[in-house]
């Protein structure tokens, strides 16, 4: 699975001390790589889910805004108790999700490849085909 940010991106953006409070579960003063990787994978999956209707996923190339979104969503996932979320973390995740909605709706463009839409009928007509009806009024007489 492709991810849109790295552990180092999180460290640069939020600081090692902050991340150690969240992702050092064994308290050895070293980030637990598997905890961070899970948060990043989950954030990346959310991004893919949001944009897959318009863009080929995984996104390539990865715009800096996608890295920012991934970092904000990954940080949110590192919090074990969602009831104790700092307001700034929650607000950043809300902004990231709102931006994803804008991207998915096509109101913001990425440099990643869009999905090509196959050419359909030129009109708005609905095209249907069906077998002959199994039950007809004549065939049901007497029932």
Topology:
Layout: H1 7-14, H2 16-23, H3 33-51, H4 64-78, H5 87-104
Helix pairs in contact: 1-2, 1-4, 3-4, 4-5
Describe it for me?
This protein is mainly α and 143 residues long. The protein has a domain at 7-104. 48% of the residues lie in helices and 0% in strands. It contains 5 helices and no strands. The longest helix is centred in the first third of the chain and has 19 residues, at 33-51. It is elongated, with a radius of gyration of 24 Å. It starts with 6 loop residues before the first helix and ends in a 39-residue tail after the last helix.
How big a fraction of the residues is strand?
under 5%
Biggest pleated sheet: none
Q: What's the average pLDDT? A: 89
The shape is: elongated
Please give the alpha-carbon distance between the first and last residues: 59 Å
Q: Short description, anyone?
A:
With 143 residues, the protein is mainly alpha-helical.
Protein traits:
143 residues; mainly alpha; 5 helices; 48% helix; elongated
């Amino acid at each position: 699975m492709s991810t849109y940010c790295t552990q180092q991106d999180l460290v640069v953006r939020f600081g090692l001390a902050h991340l150690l409070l969240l992702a050092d579960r064994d308290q050895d003063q070293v980030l637990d790589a598997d905890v961070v990787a899970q948060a990043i994978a989950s954030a990346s999956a959310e991004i893919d889910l949001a944009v897959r209707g318009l863009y080929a996923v995984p996104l390539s190339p990865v715009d800096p805004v996608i890295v920012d979104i991934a970092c904000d969503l990954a940080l949110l996932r590192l919090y074990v108790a969602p009831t104790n979320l700092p307001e700034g973390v929650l607000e950043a995740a809300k902004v990231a999700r709102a931006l994803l909605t804008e991207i998915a709706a096509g109101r913001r463009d990425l440099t990643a490849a869009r999905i090509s839409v196959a050419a359909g009928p030129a009109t708005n007509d609905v095209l249907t085909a069906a077998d002959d009806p199994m039950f007809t009024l004549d065939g049901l007489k007497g029932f």
